[in-house]
Amino acid sequence: MTASVLNQPKSSAPLQPTKWQIQFARIPDVVYFCHKVTLPGGEVKPVTQSTPFKNRLVAGSKLEYDKLNFTFLVEEEMFSWESIHNWLKDIATETSFDDYNNLKQFPNQSLITNNLSYPNAYCDATITVLDTQNIPKIRFHFYDCFPIKLGDIKFDSELSALDVIKCDSTMGFFYYEIERIPG
């Protein structure tokens, strides 16, 4: 084989920004209206190693991910927005422990909360990337997601009725794994 044959990519089809799906079992209304999602990057922060001469940077040992950010359309009944708001409220227990106890109604799917008596504040998520023919190719499985931020909703009488309201949300998570789907 020649060198040029060895350097050929396995696929020459570019990744398209509209070919994806996201799933959160806990917030199905958001999933339906999800408009944008950012696949988080990660970083291993280097550690400084002292030497008698110049200090040296060496590879760190902990991979830290960016947050999982997404944007969703807010429908008239605001169920999508409310589901994340209630989740945040239940975690933060604003006024009573009843908020925190609301977490017990969700199935326990967390690596952290494998004890059934512990309220489940976490939910796994999946981003599926599709090919040009809408066939799933790669799945990113996010473990132990939890809401960190729910964006503002801006009502504006200067906008037209054709404009739709969108909201941003940020999720923290423990880690994610990549699954290639055979096909």
Spell out the blueprint of helices and strands.
Layout: H1 3-6, E1 20-24, H2 28-33, E2 34-38, E3 42-44, E4 47-49, E5 56-58, E6 63-65, E7 68-73, H3 79-92, H4 97-101, E8 123-130, E9 136-150, E10 166-172, E11 175-180
Can you walk through the features of this model?
A hairpin with a 5-residue loop joins strand 8 and strand 9. The radius of gyration is 21 Å and the shape is globular. The mean pLDDT is 86. The strands form 3 sheets. Strands 1, 2, 7, 8, 9, 10 and 11 form a 7-stranded antiparallel sheet that branches. Strands 3-6 form a two-stranded antiparallel sheet. It has one domain (14-42, 62-180): Roll (Pnp Oxidase, Chain A). The longest helix has 14 residues, at 79-92. The two termini are 27 Å apart. It is an alpha+beta fold. The protein has helices at residues 3-6, 28-33, 79-92, 97-101; strands at 20-24, 34-38, 42-44, 47-49, 56-58, 63-65, 68-73, 123-130, 136-150, 166-172, 175-180.
